[in-house]
Amino acid sequence: MNALSLALSSIRSRPLQSSLCVTAAAAGVALLAALLLLSQGVQDGFRRSARGIDVVVGAKGSPLQLVLSSVYHVDVPTGNIDMQDMEKLRHNPKVKSIIPVALGDNYRGFRIVGTVPEYLAHYGAEYAQGKAFAAPFDAVAGALTGLKTGDSFAGVHGLAADGDDVHHFHDYKITGVLKPTGTVLDRLIITALGSVQELHRHPDIGDPDAAEDMEVAHQVTALLVKVKSPIATMSLPREINATSNMIAASPSYEMARLSQSLGFGRDLLAALGIGFVALSALMLLSSLASSLSARRYDLGVLRVLGASPETLAGTVAAEGLILAGAGAVAGIALGHALAYEMAANISSLGGVVTPSAFLQFHTLDGWLLLMGLATGLAAAAIPALSAARTDIAGLLARGLA
Amino acid sequence: MLDARNISVARKNAPLLSFPDLSVEFDDRVVLLGPSGCGKTTLLSVIAGLLRPNSGVVNFHVRDVYAMSPRARDKWRGRNVGCVFQTLHLLPALTLRQNIALAADMAGTARYEDRIDELLAKLDLAEKSHRKPDALSQGEQQRAAIARAVLNKPQLLLADEPTSALDDANAEAVMDLLVAQAGETKAALVVATHDTRILSRFTKIIRLDARVKEIA
Predict the structure, then answer these.
(1) Mean pLDDT across chain B
(2) How far is CA A151 from CA A164, A178, B109, in A?
(3) What three-state secondary structure class fits A30?
(4) pTM for this prediction
(5) Do the strands B188-193 and B156-160 form a parallel or antiparallel pair, or are they unpaired?
(6) Burial A254-288 (b: 16+ CB within 10 A, else e)
(7) Which of A279-293, B35-49, B68-82 has the lowest mean pLDDT?
(8) Test the B interface: residue of A304, A310, A391 with most B CBs within 10 Å
């Protein structure tokens, strides 16, 4: 028997109290773990989706809106720009490559993106079935769209899933389905830029937006630009904003701004998680203190048998560490399960976070375990000191013997 | 073997207790006799190295117990002193065998399973060695507490009111066991009690009204 086995036997002798302590610690750690894992997952997902895109160029409007709509496909586009502006920009010496995107339609909420094959290559797309689009109105479906090769459908004008402005006379046909990429590509339907423009060049009969559509036929929504040098990431947007009727934005800068704006809510949730952990620490402290009070005579016996004050303190500290450690491990596992469930079931997280990523060990887990153990040790510190200072002679005089 | 001289102890909210000198040799059977509150348990605590006296010295084989470092004193107590308490105090979360083995584990001595088996057999506890204390009778718990006290073959066996709550027959049985175990390990036995029924078992009676009386 050593401090560890004595602590274990003490824990086993109080199953209800011990399991309550573990549950409280697990709840706090699970909340924190899920929050941090999801937050990290979303940030990584956003970073993955914007990787290699230095600058986004589009119609005048909010730069954040431009980035959200053209890179992440979660907002309404700021407008369209003329193809000739794209060609002019292509000759800018700071520009290495340009991928145009034309937006405006969707199918069951999945946005239809008219673009060039380089867009698929940019995200390292691989085919789960079928092949790339070749003929007009051929399309490739992202992994989360639920479409399969051979499916055909009519696009709906606008970005709302329940829109009723259907392009009845121009059906898209799925020629390939992509493997999951963990990027925004997973929830997009990709077709040739020409297909989207063609659709609007020949609007449906009686379409009230026919005039507007004719304009779109010579336009794109945004340009995803890769620059030649890091310095151009800063100078190109300034140049475009000052000398053209377009707006240029850096995805990394805009997302950093967005993250800062959302920071309050995230901090609030983190504070809640930390509050839970602190509460569980208090519960552990109370449990250890009451256990100590009940076991004071047991500890007295150990001292009489030759145990040092340090051994007694070690027994109580080990108890705190075991309970907090078990709570932290359970909480980390629960946090992963929670993050997995949320990633798998919240549709807006589709293509941003990959649920299976939460089934793996993260560095964060190690930190959470350390935090749990440190909390347990802190909660056990006072009872452990009290155990070390047990007045054996006083106990003997009062009735141990 | 053990000499306690000029011992006095001042406890919080209690009058200063002065004790008569005490000298214990191998095979001695010493009883500290006195009414409740006279300081019997306090003197046992001082002898066991658990309570530093305000004055006086406790020598064990000419070595001052309170000159040792606290850690050395704990180790010394674990290896050389066996204690039996009035209310037994086996740890409820441990089995009988684990409770007995605690004496070796806490003292840091080698844990001889054969010695535990021998004691369990001798004290008729072998078949119940894996039971928890609350599944044992009072008598069985008492025997287990004595087994724990003698496991490390201590040179000094201390017992505090071991018979006070027992009827005559059980008091006799407990004293038989204590004397036998002390005899087997060649330990000196020091018992603090106010139970006059057991006085015939001792070679030396020390009354804690400061008068010392020796009998052959």
Answers:
(1) 85
(2) 20, 14, 79
(3) helix
(4) 0.70
(5) parallel
(6) bbeeeeeeeeeeeeebbeebeebbeebbebbbebb
(7) A279-293
(8) A304
Residues B183-205: pLDDT tens digits?
A: 888 889 999 998 888 888 899 99
Chain A interface test: which of B45, B47, B208 (most A C-beta within 10 Å): B45
| Interchain contact A374–B (C-beta under 8 A) | no
Highest mean pLDDT: which range of A37-41, A118-122, A396-400 = A118-122
**Cβ proximity of B119 and B100 under 8 Å:** yes
Going by the DSSP 8-state scheme, the letter that residue A178 receives in this structure is: E
Please give the average per-residue pLDDT across A327-353, as a whole number. 84
Q: Which of residues 112-141 of B touch A (CB under 8 A)?
A: none
Q: Return the closest-CA partner of residue A247 out of A83, A362, A122, A81.
A: A81
Nearest CA in chain B to A300: B89
Alpha-carbon distance B117 to B65, whole Å?
32
- The distance from CA A240 to its chain's CA centroid, rounded to whole angstroms, is 32
Q: Decide: A166 and A108 in contact? Cβ < 8 Å.
A: no
Here the ipTM equals 0.84
pLDDT in tens, A57-93: 999 999 999 998 888 888 888 888 888 888 899 999 9
* A393 closest CB neighbour out of B50, B89, B94: B50
